[in-house]
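It would be a great kindness if you could assist me with a short task in structural biology. I am sending you one protein, given as its amino acid sequence and as whole-number tokens for its backbone shapes. I would ask you to consider whether the tokens describe a fold that such a sequence might reasonably adopt. The full record is reproduced below for your convenience.
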Amino acid sequence: MDYLFEALNPWWDNSNWNTESYERREFQDVMRLLDFEENKKPRAPILVGPRRVGKTTLMYQVIRAFLKKIPASNILYYSFERADPEMQHNQNALSEIVTLWGNREYDTKKPRLLLLDEIQNVKDWDSRMKTILEATFSAPLLVMMTGSSSFDLISKSLQTLHGVTRRIFMPPFSLVDFWLMEYPEDIDFVEKTEQWRKLWLMTTHEDAGNFMPNPMPMHIETMKDEKWKKALNLQETWLLKGGFPEFWHDVDQRVASELFDFYVRRVAQDDILKLQGISKSVEIARFLKYCYFHPGGELNITTASQELGIPRSTMDVMLDLLSNAGYLRVIPRYTGNAASLRQRHIKIYPIDHGLIPRKAPNGMTIETMVVNTFSRMEEAEIYFLRKKTGGETKEIDFAVKAGSRLIAVEVKRRIERSDVEKFRKTVSELLPQATNRIMLCWDTDENGLIQDTSINSEYVEIQPLWKIALGLPNSLLAEGESL
């Protein structure tokens, strides 16, 4: 155990180690919870999110920050994915780690920081962790954990750890992350834009009963061409690379395919298989690849079961686990009545457009990005809408509910004047109660603006795609709230 401790904690003997310089905003959330100088009783953050999204990197960044505050010997990092498998089944694993660490030399007058990576791999970790967090030490014991298997699993455990922990969700990299990683000096601009997007989502303007699009905030209207071009270039990069750092390397198609297959196998074997209800990781991998190769398709469980040779009952379990674990977005059909939703009326999307196996961004890449943009908004619910009227099937890409607002959303690579009128008529027929109507456009001019401004309509708000992606709020403003 001592050898493993030293291997996982190179800062103990001043060995060379480094981590990424860009700190995502979840880093500040974690640091606030661990601030022993400001908080009389710091809470233990549990960082959850999909595999390979950067949780371990953020842990190392926390370590780097704390090395400026406390001695290196007072910091212990332990990974239950890289450790001896026997430790995962040892009910006393956590207490043994703390005891062995306590037997080593450290500064008893300074706080200690314990970082436990992939905590869900430990049997009964929640009850064991509660005992440790509630114990009394000579100096504060600060704890940070990560988990990537199942959000439901983490949520149930939080009931046991109520009051001593705080769950922080870490999604794949967004356009905001790409912007701040490339241009950290633009933090004020990005935050203002996010605030406006929150307000936009919860506000409508009505004039004589007709919808009028919200005015753009002054700081966006007066943006210099330089920032518009930044947004356009970053959108291209983000849509091409996606939100998982593992897929950012410039590799040929064969290597990219191998990376994708490896990622799917790891999810199947190391995350989902450990949860109840499924015994074969190959079935999980097959189903997950099927979903990633058919983003935005309406999933028919019976048909997919026959095509994949997997029992329907197993498919139902896998769909539930993969969506709860954050690897799939399940979008139901909008009916206006939550009680009438049926699992057979769903569309499936990857948790990030970077997981779609393709050589270049296409329509489904863009649609997946929009789905995940709205899905990250805590108070927004996203649906698709398709109806048969007069023997003809009509469709609105998405219906988004936010508070009392109902937003009709159409995603287009390029918008023509006829598209706007068609969208307006379709919304009037299928979703007349919509409070907002918005069309998002991928193709823009070299400055990131809609090329043909003459197509703007007083009934439809038309925006470049990057503008909605730039604002990914963690929460939405309540009605009546203003900037």
